């Protein structure tokens, strides 16, 4: 339980940081920032795909897309293979905002990460990758996570790209 509570504190610290950083760079709510982050990482998505990523209803996703489109952070575009579907596409403005928010967060996280020994970095890398895969498998029914190598991974760690 202690690990779960520590993870909760870490997630909330990131959310608070992201909210504060958002206020510095743009005027939008937390849900909008998270949506833009998904679009930044995954590329263009349909509103229903975005709804699934955010665990919200299709109607809520449509309203959210309307807001980020009005603000100039995203546009709706034609789906390349299905003329019935529309994609939500980040604008250059949206990309710049998301990059700025996560670049700031990355600087702070990398400072902590770089202070760790290479062995500690490998442990962090292995834990975060494996824990994320296990949780994603449980919540999104993805393939099960790969087994952890006995040595925890032999390659030297590199700072995460954020």
TrEMBL record:
Region: Disordered, residue numbers: 137-162
Keyword Transcription regulation appears in the UniProt entry: yes
GO molecular-function term, one example from the UniProt record: DNA-binding transcription factor activity
PANTHER family reported for this sequence: TRANSCRIPTIONAL REGULATOR, MARR (PTHR42756), TRANSCRIPTIONAL REPRESSOR OF EMRAB OPERON (PTHR42756:SF1)
Pfam families in alphabetical order: MarR (PF01047)
InterPro entries linked to this entry: HTH_MarR-typ, WH-like_DNA-bd_sf, WH_DNA-bd_sf
Signal peptide annotation: none
Residues annotated as domain HTH marR-type: 1-133
Designated name of the protein: Putative MarR family transcriptional regulator
Species this protein is from: Rhodococcus wratislaviensis NBRC 100605
Record's keyword terms, sorted: DNA-binding, Transcription, Transcription regulation
């Amino acid at each position: 339980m202690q690990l779960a509570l520590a993870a909760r504190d870490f997630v909330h610290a990131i959310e608070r940081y992201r909210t504060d950083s958002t206020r510095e760079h743009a005027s939008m709510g937390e849900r909008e920032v998270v949506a833009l982050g998904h679009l930044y990482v995954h590329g263009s998505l349909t509103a229903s795909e975005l709804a699934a990523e955010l665990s919200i209803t299709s109607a809520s996703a449509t309203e959210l897309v309307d807001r980020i489109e009005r603000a100039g952070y995203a546009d709706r575009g034609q789906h390349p293979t299905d003329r019935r579907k529309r994609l939500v596409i980040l604008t250059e403005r949206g990309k710049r905002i998301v990059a700025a928010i996560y670049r700031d967060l990355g600087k702070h996280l990398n400072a902590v990460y770089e202070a760790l020994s290479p062995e500690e970095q490998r442990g962090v890398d292995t834990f975060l990758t494996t824990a994320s895969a296990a949780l994603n498998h449980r919540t999104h029914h993805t393939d099960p996570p790969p087994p952890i190598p006995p040595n925890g991974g032999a390659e030297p760690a590199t700072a995460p790209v954020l």
